[in-house]
Amino acid sequence: MTAGQRAPTPRDELATWRRLQQLADAPERPGSAAAHSLTACGLTLDLSGQRLAPPILDALLALARECDLPGQLRRLFEGAPVNASEHRAALHTRLRALDADGLPQDPEVAAHFRGLENLAERWRQRRLTGFAGQPLQHLVNIGIGGSDLGPRLVCAALAPERDSRFVANMDPEDFHTQCDGLDPGRTLFIVCSKSFGTAETLYNLEQARQWLLAAGCPESRLPHHLLAVTANAERARAAGFDDEHILTFQDWVGGRYSLWSSIGASIALTLGMDGFRALLRGAQAMDQHVLQTPPEHNLAALLGLTDVWNFSFRHCHSLAVLPYAQRLALLPMHLQQLMMESTGKRADQQGRLLGYHTGAVVWGAAGTTGQHSFHQLLHQGSQRVSCDFILPLAPGAPHPARPLSELDRLGHRQLVAHCLAQMQALRQGEEKAALRRRLEAEGRAGDELEALLPQLEVPGRRLFNLLTLPRLDAWHLGALLALYEHRVYCASVLWGINAFDQWGVELGKRISSELLPWLEPGHPERAEQAPEELRTVIAAWHRANAPQGDPTAS
Amino acid sequence: MTAGQRAPTPRDELATWRRLQQLADAPERPGSAAAHSLTACGLTLDLSGQRLAPPILDALLALARECDLPGQLRRLFEGAPVNASEHRAALHTRLRALDADGLPQDPEVAAHFRGLENLAERWRQRRLTGFAGQPLQHLVNIGIGGSDLGPRLVCAALAPERDSRFVANMDPEDFHTQCDGLDPGRTLFIVCSKSFGTAETLYNLEQARQWLLAAGCPESRLPHHLLAVTANAERARAAGFDDEHILTFQDWVGGRYSLWSSIGASIALTLGMDGFRALLRGAQAMDQHVLQTPPEHNLAALLGLTDVWNFSFRHCHSLAVLPYAQRLALLPMHLQQLMMESTGKRADQQGRLLGYHTGAVVWGAAGTTGQHSFHQLLHQGSQRVSCDFILPLAPGAPHPARPLSELDRLGHRQLVAHCLAQMQALRQGEEKAALRRRLEAEGRAGDELEALLPQLEVPGRRLFNLLTLPRLDAWHLGALLALYEHRVYCASVLWGINAFDQWGVELGKRISSELLPWLEPGHPERAEQAPEELRTVIAAWHRANAPQGDPTAS
């Protein structure tokens, strides 16, 4: 909030919010699972698993009006400083606003885009060569958070056969596990960091340099293998990159919204520019749907409203993302960052501590694997979880060299049946009388039967969304990812929070550098000077890392 | 409960439970973060991040006594039917009860163990050969749930360089992504299913057969490439396996506790028998600690008590598992199954619906990667999450051919600093006055400063455990995994629930086969006969999979 501006009423003092609270406190009405599905950009959202009785849906839509959700969406697209605490716009939609020729309409974005296009073209033509003159063919992305999760997901979803690698962690095991076995002379590292000050990324850049040098790359040829992607070209230059090996993007691109920018370089190289453009086009189509559609028919608004209802009113504390597609196995991790970093806030934009829950824990795994793991809790647990089932209806584009077999088609058909069956089980449960008959038929009776019945009962009436895609391709994946971005923004507007900052992550970074002196190898006495609550563990660290120590001692 | 046995008092009517409820309802006392750490089997648990004031810890230990936790642990180890709803013992501890010679003490377990040892020895010596006579060298595990997650985790943690593959999902993409690029003539499939009736596993077995046949393997030589691991040898025989290619294990091994049994074949082949034995030995040591130690010094009991306090009394709904070790990146997924399938229950063993929360959602990721993703919510979110930090204090055993570099050591030291810093930030937050001074120094003032302060404040007083290992090796990993198994059992005793059944997963399987007829390719009219709430999506499926359809239509 700028000084002098009148502070909006706290959300939980709005008339519509109070109405929702009354509805939440009232006993739930039965029979509210009416069919409720909408389609946009080829994606169909079925909300019937949320059991939103008409008065609840009406009250949620009234909240959207009272919060001026359509106006706030316009502000986002127009470049208003929606990230107020950092005085910044959040213009990721501009990254995918392509003209009829498939070029970004914004001139600055177009300039970055052409840099990427040029790189991707040289990569495709194998004109990028390594220190010994061989064409580069292995791609390793170095980055963490938004410089990792989005590109990693898209590459795994659309071209797993290319085997592009991603190194993120400060743990040196990550670099070695990903790079062992690659031919250094043929490896290109794309080093992504918005600030070019990310500790993990600079560390792994150094690992890459040492790995190349150890393989015989002359110092002077290191630049052949290293490409920087950053919004801070100056710092990349200071780290040894020349302008020819730096791709840039704008400061208003938030990390978790950056896969559409030059940070998507590994996507562009892995899929080719056509694939990257199709991804952007799908997102662009979703942007237009979200911007132009009133809340009652707007997929992002309805999902955001449902999140607010579930997490603030309905005692639901987590969202399970369940893609029924192995290629989307990394989707929960990407959405974890997108949703939890954006909505894990406890104060509104006016600085008032909130009296209601905001963003929930986001987790999940690809179906059917989760069915053999955590679905037990979804069906019979005591926690209220809302599930997002995400289902591409046709089998994925197969490996270019391998047509789909009948067996592949059968597997996919069974996969679809499992997805729908899980929804049915969550929705309906099993009728108690039927369960009793089944147990009696198995010979159970008396006290044993009575004790078993509640342990076996699946109650149903659990919460879920279903999102279907005709198939998993770049265009529909782009639309899907953009939908989640807008869902998050809609929820943040309804909660009155800033979806684009992440102040909570700074403190740990600062403390980390303060702790390093106590972890000075060969100086176990430093443990005594460390903060009291860490002395035991720091002393243990010195023992475990003592060079003269018996390596078999525990 | 057996008929005639007197039902135990419901947990929430116990005097100790009521006492805990009073403590939970009282305002929290400050200054209760006293140092509280214990060591067993080389693992140190620091509980200080749970801020258990002495009266709370006393009341929790009183609950353990009232529930006869030590007696219930003895029942588990003695083979009492602790899985009452299935009339079964849960004797996974017997799988790792080795004698001085490193052989299982139980004769039947020993017989299975020798079968595995024999196989691992022939694998090591490259005496297993494929259809064209080449030695087998690629290992692909086919299994799902417990037949996948545990072995997958252990292989990734201890021998990522061996590149053993794991196929689990019904989605055919999983098989193809894992197996593309392997040489069929050199590939061994280990097909794991306790019942040998698991749909996904039988499906992927068929994929393996077709893949081998397509590569020129004669039908008669398929058995060279396929090994079954099951507790139901008869069904494996019916599926075409001869006894020579079947490894068995006992019916009392639960899926999520089965990595210690023949289901660990991929572990034994990947690590060698010495590594597998060290894993078992570590678990065995932890078993003895847990069985023999009174609750107040028992790591598993204290963790279980803390879970009960957090999830049933403290409005905490999830547990974030944060291993600061890239090699443990799959640990959250393994624990997700172990904990959520075991404690996602809503009725006690007497069939009474519970009035309190039991098992929570388990999720997480390897640090430091999560710091750039969801840690924002941990530090500043509105949800209460408890975190398990898991930290090996020394860098992992490196690739056999590559000694640790100075850069590797530096990275690991920074990794440790980050782990401890995250704990400090969660514990202490940032003093508000210091934050104000920092913002003033940056030139912020007036209304803007006041609005920013709460948005930037990191409040601290969040919940966490720290578990340190001297280093990540087979022995300590075995101890760690056994500790979590016992923690789950302890919590289940305190909650009065069955940790060893999973009735909630059956209904979805049944419904799935009922739905297949509506998904008959080429019969779009079937959609009209499907359950009403599925007609739209089933019709869309038929459109998306129509053979004559325009492949570019959405």
Task: Describe the protein in words.
2 copies of one chain form a homodimer. With 554 residues, chain A is an alpha/beta fold. Chain A is built from 20 helices and 11 strands. In chain A, the strands form 2 sheets. A 6-stranded mixed beta sheet of chain A has the order 1-2-11-10-8-9, with helices on both faces. A 5-stranded parallel beta sheet of chain A has the order 4-3-5-6-7, sandwiched between helices. The first copy, chain A, is globular, with a radius of gyration of 26 Å. The first copy, chain A, starts with 14 loop residues before the first helix and ends in a 10-residue tail after the last helix. At the A-B interface, helix 7, helix 8, helix 13, strand 9 and helix 14 of A face helix 7, helix 8, helix 13, strand 9 and helix 14 of B.
Task: Give descriptors for this structure.
homodimer; about 550 residues; alpha/beta; Rossmann fold; 3 domains; six-stranded mixed beta sheet; five-stranded parallel beta sheet; 11 strands; disordered C terminus
